[in-house]
Amino acid sequence: SPDLRGAVLYSSCEPCPMCLAAALWARLDLVVFAAGRGDAARAGFDDSAFYDYFARPGHHAVLPVEQHRHADAVDPFDAWLAHEGRTAY
């Protein structure tokens, strides 16, 4: 099951944005880490561009993300919902 409610992730370092997103997706209850993002950056693992991106609102983002909605935009989701063998997330 992708649902890990009740679980705690222990890490030697603060999760990068992608790892943090995975922890959120898994519905973890808590993430505990030792070294911080600044420590990781000093060692060459600098994710500051990602943290900056997520900290900026909409049009001020480092990489703008825009929605261009089409009439059939939700068709893939409707097909997914109609699929009886799907895994619920």
How would you briefly describe this protein structure?
It comes from Candidatus Brachybacterium intestinipullorum. This is Nucleoside deaminase. The chain has helices at 17-25, 37-42, 48-55, 75-82; strands spanning 8-13, 30-35.
Compile the SSE list and pairings.
Layout: E1 8-13, H1 17-25, E2 30-35, H2 37-42, H3 48-55, H4 75-82
Parallel strand pairs: 1-2
Structure description:
The chain has helices spanning 17-25, 37-42, 48-55, 75-82, and strands at residues 8-13, 30-35. The longest helix is centred in the N-terminal third of the chain and has 9 residues, at 17-25. It is 35% helix and 13% strand. Strands 1-2 form a two-stranded parallel ribbon. The mean pLDDT is 88. It has a domain at 8-65: 3-Layer(aba) Sandwich (Cytidine Deaminase, domain 2), CATH 3.40.140. By secondary structure, the protein is of the alpha+beta class.
